[in-house]
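re: ur question from the group chat, yeah i did fold both. here u go
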Amino acid sequence: LKFDNNAAVHNARLTKEFFQENNITLLDHPACSLDLNPIENIWGWMAREVYKNGHQFQTVDALCEAIFNTWSNVPTSLLETLASSMPKQFFEVINKNGGATHY
């Protein structure tokens, strides 16, 4: 079971074939709908950490190393905060009938 927000990456032929071949059922999800996936918050945190203080990288290898180091050091407290916020987010989405929330 997977949510599909109609993003281009989810509509690629190979992606659709992969889902079909692996018996992954997609749920219809309107474009630009709420993203309740906490990984998006982690990506944002990681980007801020990797490029902290305007840091720029001279090589792809240096950037990859910074990304891997950052991924290895995601604070447990961030993960716990994101996980504990999910029930409140779901509740608010349900109460707003899928409309805009403050998240």
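okk and heres the other one u asked abt
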Amino acid sequence: SEVRSQDTVFVIGGATSSLKGRELAWKFVQDRWDELHTRYQGGFLLARLVQFSTSGFVEESRAREVEEFFRQHPAPAAERTVQQSCENIRLNAAWLARDAGNISNYLKTRASL
């Protein structure tokens, strides 16, 4: 109640800049989904909330978790965003699997300079 309703989504999104923040934001959204869905049910802020709370994930298991959550908690106003978020999670997972070793090696060589 201390944060304006239209600003809540951006406060949650701001928390996602770190690994721990992403975990906490996603858990917050899951734990308070009924309240958040009621608050933002028909507007673009619901889609933003989904986007902000899932965009940092990089594992296939997270994509499945997000899909399962929204199967159990339908959000027609954010359905496209859920699909896009899961696609982005999968793309990030594939990129990480493909390039993590090269990036790690590069950073190690740069650190030794």
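fwiw on the second one: The chain has one domain: 7-111. The mean pLDDT is 92. idk if thats what u expected
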